[in-house]
Amino acid sequence: MSSLPRSIRQLTNATLPDGSRVDVTLEGGTVSGVFPAATLADSTEIQNDGSTLDLTGFLLLTAPAEPHAHLDKALSWDLIDPPMGDLELAIESWRDYTAVMTVESIAERARQAAMLLLRQGTTAVRTHVDMLVGDNPMRGVRALVRVREELRDLMDIELVALAGPFVPSELVDEALDLGVDLVGGAPHLAEDPLADLRRLIAIAERRGVGSDIHTDESLTGAPTLGEYARLVRDWTVPASAGHCVRLGTLEPTKLAAVITEVLASDLGIISLPITNLYLQGWQHPVGTPRGLTALRALLDAGVRVAAGADNVRDPFNPVGRSDALETASLLVSAGHLTLDEAYAAVSSGARSVMSLPLAGVEVGAAAELLAVRGTNLSDVIANASADRFVIHAGRLVAQSTVSYDVAAPRVAVDSPAPSLAETR
What we know:
The protein is α/β, with parallel strands linked by helices.
């Protein structure tokens, strides 16, 4: 039987990304002290009740947050067996499958997907949820509300009502009444994108909730991000835009103008590399463009940037490990971010865009922590060791251990015998 979750009071001998080694104390869900390594061993009796973790050989990080998931869709690829292709084909495949889904089947996949995220280190998730076609459009909403309640002691889950252009506004209200937190949608799919955007923002304003909109998720078309930023200019509730792929194709002058609007509204931008790299560019077999937003320009301008996995093993993305380190790796290789910038996007940046409290190895910060076996950030992002400890609200909620047994290489028969000096 698992001994998890359990409260953690001390972390010893941990390595931080800057190379320093530290001991950390926790009180409840808060970091209460950060000291040079071995301080706790010298000054206090190390606890033997399971509340101390020795993190020798582990890098200690702020736990990742997933700012844009689709738990209601996750892990459905094998069930649907859809053709590979672009966004429109993925939407068509998903809509066809929704006819056979139940609250129970959605909840089962969503629960499994959330637990995979937790196992890898993610302790907070914002997930969009469809209002489905058919007689019971709230199937997905009811399933995810149920899963959020089941997992509330293990991770934080926020729900966004994904109201496509053909979803009536009254269904968005019903979803909010059932417990969904934010208004979402995909105005770029509408015949009149700006009109649908204004509709969604009006619902959020009327209900007094924030918004997280799928925005400009294509390589062509009229951008709507600037108008979105203007519409939420005076908001005091959260507002963020996911995808923003079109932003990555704009010439510098137009890009700068949109970024000015985004900054003026403090609108958070969420990049989703693995899904957008998969979905975008199918029409360009030569010189295939990257399906990413303008990451460098956004970061350099001071925009709050987050990054997430988006879809995992469903018609919108057939692969994915539910691991923030996979997302960080793609931000480095495809987005040309530094290692520090990439990890910040999936951790502190994601938490900022999700309006979550500051977390990490800092006195007074929330004890949302991930320890991964490795020597530094380059090692951890590159190798993504499965040896991990995951701490949520000061409690150990997941741990994994990996062992390797690899055959030794053959010793060359013509190697010279070592000299006497070499053997001393």
